[in-house]
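Problem 3 from the worked examples.
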Amino acid sequence: LQRVLDVLPDVAVVSLYGQTEGSPITSLGPNDHRLAAVKNPDVLCTVGRPVSGLRLQIDKPDRAGIGEVLAAAEHLSAQAADGWLHTGDLGVLDADGYLRLCGRRHDMVVRGGENVYPLEVENVLSAHPAVAAVGVVGVPDTRLGETLAAFVVPTDPAHPPRPEELGSFARVTLAGFKIPHYWYAVAELPLNSAGKVIRATLRSSHLERQHSEST
């Protein structure tokens, strides 16, 4: 998105966040994009602020302020009895009211009592120059309950990055409990029709690999 703004500085860019049950929920308008270009690039990591007439709430936030995104407005359908649309998305609101998404609620991993959001880990790892694509998923662990497995599509398949290299790279940004325990180099990631990673397939692949190694 930053590259788009650099190449097309005079184009008005609008980004919207919503769901089939109701859209839009938030918007990142032209003024927001201009602000990001000259002052606050972190705004581009958000999906904007609530659209007019919409109420937004973060349900049951954790210590980092991350919880399920709830929305209420006349144009939203499938609202629960409590009057809110429970999106199933996890997010956090910053001091200026911008919403940053952290993944899906059912994707959250609880590793030794600590919440880990795979999307956050993926965003960090994807910044490594040797990583073309990456998918992170929670997998069973006898001691911690769950741990993380990372499936990495290398930029150069003949020279995939070493797990130690990726782990050290991620530790610059992430806490130790967010670093994947298992690392797999793969040719491609399983994607659905919307281009999203199918985490259930990654989880099954990990379990199959672990079973093969133990027999």
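Problem 4, a separate protein:
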Amino acid sequence: MINKEKPVFIWPMARTGGTLFATMLGVHSELAMSYEIYEDCLCEVKGEYMSPVMARDILLQSAIDAGLSVEPSDLSDAQIKKWISNISQPPFRSFVARAHRGALDPYILIKTLEEFIETGKGFELLEHRLDFIEILMKYKAEFDGKTYWGGKAKVSLEVLCNKYPDACIFMMVRDGRDMLTSRMNVGAFDKDPKLIASEWVEHMELFDRVKKTHKGVMHQVSYEKLVYEPVSELKKVCNCIEIDYEESMVGYEQQDLTLLKNPYGHLSATQISKGINDESIGRWKTELPKEALTAFEEVAGEKLREKGYVVG
């Protein structure tokens, strides 16, 4: 039976190891974790939210355009990719592709959208969009036969805590200079070192402030310890959730992971497929331009030291 009152969320910041952490958690026998099914992609264009009826109809029409059945059937990965590529709205296409990374295929989306339509709710309100995300995450848990549900949740931390007062909320802490190095080399991220440094500092300071009043558990997870001391770090996490540690969590790459079969351009998929490794730790020492390093440390140097990183 699903524990409906105690979800598990990762409050993400791009390129800090959240996907690795979600993958490790998701292979646990009691915990189902979803990836980046973010509410801000339930729209035709950014900021213009569609209705659940429109979302369902887009999925149905894109299946027809791809020459596929609108009735649930056993499709190959290539057929599902063709289906997704026929969705003309980029944000929603991203949402559907990301859902499929976590084994929520378009047929499941149609089914859950039809159930959501029956509630009379739309996607205009943030709370209702989060309600739909919750339905998807719980569906995954039920389908996998797991007790706990959750995933990465890119939403205001205050909103997340207010909506789910008993939730376990985790935040990844990674050397901000490695985060900056990653953002400068992959993806369509802002490349300004000072802006990224400010984001890194503010993200952690907000987490610390909200933690003081949140009823549920809030815990920071070190990316470096997750790599170098994975068992001890994951045991702490499991204690927070109140589940037993399982060895499969550190050997996640040996499992049948939909993320690796259906990455759809996920920036971390190749790295994740290698299993736990330290290739991304300390890259800033050789790859980050000196001027970018100086600019980042001017803003975030104190916080780096506070988190145990060597500066200078």
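Solution to problem 4. The domain at 8-306 is CATH 3.40.50.300 (Rossmann fold). Residues 32 and 149 are 5 Å apart (CA to CA).
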